[in-house]
Amino acid sequence: MNEDQEALDLAADWADISQGLKKDLGSQLHAQWIKPIQLGSFCKDTGTLDLFLPTEFSANWVADRFADRLSLAWKIARSEVRQVRITVHPRRRAMPELRVGGDAGMAPARVQGIPAPVVADAMVTGLDPSLTFAEFVSGSANVLAVNAAQRMAAVETPQFSPLYLKGSTGQGKTHLLHAIGHAYAANKPGARIFYCSAERFMIEFVQAMRQNEMIEFKARLRGFDLLLVDDIQFIIGKASTQEEFLHTIDALLGAGRRLVVAADRAPQALDGVEQRLLSRLSMGLVADIQPADIELRRKILEHRLARFTSTQVPQDVVEFLARTINRNVRELVGGLNKLVAFAQLTGQPVSLNLAEEQLTDILSANRRRITIDEIQRTVCQFYRVDRTEMASKRRARAVVRPRQVAMYLAKVLTPRSYPEIGRKFGGRDHSTVIHAVRLIEELRTRDADMDGDVRTLLRQLED
Predict the structure, then answer these.
(1) Any known ligand binding at 173?
(2) In this structure, is the dihedral angle defined by the CA atoms of residues 62, 229, 365 and 448, taken in order, positive or negative?
(3) Which residues form the AAA+ ATPase domain (predicted)?
């Protein structure tokens, strides 16, 4: 239990550190380099914390540019952390390399400790066995992409090639790529299938050039029956890599092979990509994956809940998550997993209060931008007090309590600091805001009326 609590504490600290880095670095840099970081183990004897990234390239990049910042942030959060070690995830090290000679790099898909699905002796590389069509929940937002993916995996020659899956982060592009690979392997005995990211394609290409292995590299790459390339937006700006990828596309399609790529934007929106490559990427079918609507988000949650038979998740919590976590499916599933894991490890029942407490970072990121002015107007209308009372010096209870509630909501719903909030409430000191926030938090735990007021105001502000 102590180890479980330690893991939860580390996860909570990382959530705070990650959010801080997002504000410092901006959403784009954070999403590309910080968000993929996974927590490893913490050795209390040496004070060493392991942070993992999915590839050698990303691990080296983050270590070169952010090691000092990450180390400082962890030392501030936890004084016992003396060293942060940034490496590639151990499971990723074992992934077979495209560069391995002959067929040695081809093996039935598997993840460490998990048996590969039966694929009728097909030779596949890089697929995650958990990402299949059976585990993908479809709805109106992704029906075109799902149907196109299933056609691409069928025995019959598809009417379109390449297939280009376009969708924002966390909407299911990667899942569909893996699902196509598994289904095609099951349908086509002996098929040679390879999944990789555009980043990995570039790394392998550069290594092949440095080691004078370009002929072998091209031959192996073009020998696949199905090539699946993820995050194609990262191939931008590399002229030689683009040229080789263009020739690979031509060779595969010319030989009747299949190609599926995925990106977070349409081909025409890719910056730094030459026109010939854009033309090839657009010549098949561009299938758009829209953000999941609330009906699809409900279906996804219900599908995931089937795995958690030992933990009861009330319907009001499911509805709350479906309505609130609306940016992408990955965050939705991650939020549910975190909530259920916390409940299982601590023995607490899943409830709305627990969801709000444990998913603060996810919920805050999904809420629309709300201003302090909007909060003050809403609170004043709710409690029927004049708007000027938010900045007044009056200390009557009928005025102080609404003002404290507004300060609390300002801290919960906006990224403003305590001093910034204080300035919006008549130039009050940050300590006054801290007191108000802690008081309302405490009142919500023992005063049902106060908790009800805050919930009502949250709904009004978030609708």
Answers:
(1) yes
(2) negative
(3) 159-307
> Cβ(108)–Cβ(114) under 8 Å?
no
C-alpha span between 389 and 369 (Å, rounded): 24
Burial 368-381 (b: 16+ CB within 10 A, else e): eebebeebbebbbe
Q: Which amino acid is at 217?
A: F
Q: Is 172 annotated as a binding residue?
A: yes
pLDDT tens for each residue of 257-298: 999 999 988 998 887 788 898 999 999 999 999 999 889 999
Q: How far apart are CA 87 and CA 51, in angstroms?
A: 6
Alpha helices in 165-308 (DSSP H): 173-187, 198-210, 214-221, 239-254, 275-282, 294-305
Whether the pLDDT of residue 62 is over 70: the answer is yes
Domains and CATH numbers, the chain: 2-91 (3.30.300.180), 123-289 (3.40.50.300), 294-366 (1.10.8.60), 372-462 (1.10.1750.10)
Q: Which two tokens stand for residue 88?
A: 């590639």
Mean pLDDT over each residue of the chain, to the nearest integer? 83
CA 51, chain centre distance (Å)? 17
φ, ψ at 265 (rounded to 5°) = -150, 165
Nearest CA-CA partner of 319 in 346, 345, 352, 284: 352
pLDDT of residue 100: 34
What integer pLDDT is reported at residue 228 of this predicted model? Answer: 94
3-state secondary structure at position 111:
strand
**Distance spanning both ends of the chain, measured CA to CA:** 39
DSSP 33: I
Amino acid of residue 338: K
Q: Among candidates 416, 439, 318, 433, which has minimal Cα distance to 364?
A: 416
User: Do the beta carbons of residue 109 and residue 124 sit within 8 Å?
Assistant: yes
> How confident is the model over 151-171, as a mean pLDDT?
92
Which residue, among 299, 338, 325, has the nearest Cα to 170 in the 3D structure? 325
- Inform me whether the pLDDT recorded for 181 exceeds 80: yes
Q: Helices 294-305 & 315-324, crossing angle to 10 degrees? A: 130
Rounded Cα–Cα distance for residues 348 and 345 (Å): 8
Interval 153-164 mean pLDDT: 92
